[in-house]
Each structure stands twice: as C-alpha cells, then as structure tokens.
C-alpha cells in the first residue's frame, strides 16, 4: 500500500475515534445534567409540574396544591430510582429541581410572547395586569397560565374560571364603559402579571 494511502487511512481512523470520544463526552454530559429519576417525570403528560413552577414564579413560594403534588411525584421517582430522596424542608433545592424539570419537559417549545388581542385591554393594560397580578396567588389561575404557557391551551375550566374572576374584578373596579377581557387576552395579561425576575 502506498504511503499516502496509509496516511489517509490513519487520518480517517483518527477522525472516527475522535468523533466517538466526543459523542461519549457529550452523552456523558447529558447524563450528568439530568438525574436518572427525571425520565419518568419528563415523560409525564400532565401540567402539574409546570403549574407548580408557574405558582413559584407568581408568588416565590411552594405553598400551592400543585407543588405539593409535584413534591410527591419527585419523591416517589427518586425512591424508585434508588436516589436519596429530596429533603422536604429544602425549598431552594425543590425550586431548582422543578425549574430543571420544566426546562427538560419543554425544551423544544419556543418562547412566544403574546400580545393582547382586544383594543380595550391594550388601552387599559396596566390596570388589567395589576388585577391579574393580585389573582395569580390563586392556584386555579396559576394552573390556567401553565396550560396556556406549556400546552398553548386557554380553553380549560381553569381558564374559564380565570376569565370570569378577572372580569368580575374588573367590573367592580372600573367605571362605565367597563373593561372586559376576552379569552384571547389571557396569555398576554397573565404573562405580564408574573413578577419580573
């Protein structure tokens, strides 16, 4: 075999070996980034984890019913994977795990900011957002925002409740002509009502 062919063969083999090493390194990094117990939690189809995350963003606390449910889901997944279970008192660690899970479950989702649909809400955005901010402490409102954010669905009963609640509040706070929100306005209003991070 000519010398140049041997060099070419060596270069090809080196390239193959290097790509195998890089693939192993990248896959190893992915494994370290996501603990073993994440797999069943990431595969789940509900939005409880996202609703917990939304509640955390809304009020910087883990005192919602969805966070209680999420805490138990994480704890059972850890026990099943033979991982030391989460310390229930470590709220910072819990918040970190929830944030990681939401990111892992929604990696492919694009961050789309909605604009209010109706002119009436656009013209009164500050007032409407202030009303919505006060209602985000309600678990059902946080659940509605999670469904809009992560499923693109504003047609649930939680969103029916949220829309009725916000319109009732706006009716009591505004003079004639009354401000009336529509379902199309929910995404933009609730997103803007989240405290800035």
C-alpha Rg (nearest Å): 24 Å
Number of strands: 0
- Overall mean pLDDT: 80
Oligomer: single chain
Shape: elongated
Tally of alpha and pi helices: 10
Q: Spans with pLDDT under 50 lasting ≥5 residues?
A: 11-32
Helix percent reads 55-70%
What's the helix-strand series? HHHHHHHHHH
In percent terms, what proportion of residues is strand? under 5%
What layout of secondary structure does this protein have?
Blueprint: H1 3-33, H2 38-43, H3 48-59, H4 65-80, H5 91-105, H6 119-123, H7 125-135, H8 139-151, H9 157-173, H10 186-193
Helix pairs in contact: 3-4, 3-5, 3-8, 7-9, 7-10, 8-9
Key words describing this protein structure:
197 residues, mainly alpha
Structure description:
It is elongated and about 75 Å long. The protein is mostly helical. The chain has helices spanning 3-33, 38-43, 48-59, 65-80, 91-105, 119-123, 125-135, 139-151, 157-173, 186-193. It has ten helices and no strands.
Put the structure in a nutshell.
This protein has helices spanning 3-33, 38-43, 48-59, 65-80, 91-105, 119-123, 125-135, 139-151, 157-173, 186-193. By secondary structure, it is an all-alpha fold.
């Amino acid at each position: 075999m000519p010398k140049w062919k041997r060099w070419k063969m060596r270069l090809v083999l080196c390239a193959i070996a290097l790509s195998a090493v890089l693939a192993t390194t990248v896959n190893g990094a992915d494994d370290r980034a996501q603990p073993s117990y994440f797999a069943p939690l990431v595969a789940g189809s509900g939005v409880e984890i996202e609703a917990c995350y939304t509640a955390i963003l809304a009020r910087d606390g883990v005192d919602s019913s969805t966070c209680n449910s999420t805490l138990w889901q994480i704890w059972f997944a850890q026990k099943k994977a033979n991982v030391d279970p989460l310390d229930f008192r470590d709220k910072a660690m819990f918040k970190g795990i929830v944030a990681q899970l939401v990111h892992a479950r929604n990696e492919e989702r694009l961050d789309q900011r909605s604009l209010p649909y109706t002119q009436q809400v656009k013209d009164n955005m500050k007032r409407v957002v202030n009303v919505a901010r006060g209602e985000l402490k309600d678990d059902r409102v946080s659940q509605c925002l999670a469904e809009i954010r992560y499923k693109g669905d504003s047609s649930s009963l939680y969103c029916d409740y949220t829309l009725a609640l916000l319109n009732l509040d706006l009716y009591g706070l505004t003079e004639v002509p009354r401000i009336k929100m529509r379902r199309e306005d929910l995404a933009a209003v609730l997103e803007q009502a989240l405290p800035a991070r």
